[in-house]
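Translate sequence into structure tokens.
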Amino acid sequence: MSLSIPQPTDTTPLDQPELRAWLGKQAVLLGFDDLRITDTHLGPASERLQAWLAEGRHGHMEYMQRHAELRSNPQLLVPGTVRVICVSMNYLSPESDFDAEWQRLENPSQAVISLYARGRDYHKVLRNRLQEFAKAIEAKIGAFGYRVFTDSAPLMEVELARKAGLGWRGKHTLLLNRESGSTFFLGEILVDVPLPLDYEEAEHCGSCQSCIDICPTKAITAPYQLDARRCISYLTIENPEAIPVEFRSAMGNRVYGCDDCQLICPWNKFAQRTQLPDFAQRHGLGQASLLHLWSWTEAEFEQRHEGSAIRRIGYSRWRRNLAVAMGNALASASLSIAVKEEIHRVLTEGLADADALVAEHIEWALNAYN
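Result follows.
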């Protein structure tokens, strides 16, 4: 069936059940787990963003302040946009086990890396599939205006996904879905075609505040309120400077990101495992010790994290994070003397060629053993 393509100024929805059903099926064929459609109106969310930025809760993420106006209005980002196709993609690999993750957090010799980062860089995986999806839509309906995004532009992804009905905002500010919890990535296609809209989903957190209670650094300051400057994910990834001393002990053995608010969430008992090989863990990152990861040279770091989101932080921040975790290991009463002595030895040796950022964290770590 040939479908006529409305002009971008036409706001009459395409009353095409066949097209909407096709979009959902095509999304699944391309590895996405759900698809919903919303408009570009963000309403009160834009005001909340401005207030959050005014309080400085974004920390060193200056790009959020710099592009705040674009972030508040997708039509400014991509002129002519009238709809946003929102998709989700589960990332938990089949071997993921939440109980095992809690056990690793209790073992100070082990390095804990956020579950989402153990496989390929999701930016590349989703962007390529979104582009393929857009080309398939073009083959179906003819030429149309679009751009694809996945955590790669000033776009309020979670708010758009919430409006589209992919889930609701949890009290930790992440998106939650009754069928798959919160362990999924989001992607968008901004289009100039007025597709029919989907409905928002009601919230289902009730009185639960497990995510607030579990946060090691109390970064979730109130329901739906996150101070990024306190968040371990921000501190280990986005923060380019020294990690504030007041948060170092609370970081424990987390060296890249933090999953505690997701691990504790009751809805994640429904978290779905992905069958995509892209998100299978690489280089044993789910079982690696701090000593093993510290032994990597910069060349090994670059090679082993090729195609990984972790590579973006660079070797210096990687060593900074490891030094904090190793300092916490040295301060732990449960670690054997032999392991502590080995950690102390390699940290001392590492001071010789450490840059100023890493050296300061090594010295802090060594003081924990004195």
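Note: Residues 3 and 140 are 8 Å apart (CA to CA).
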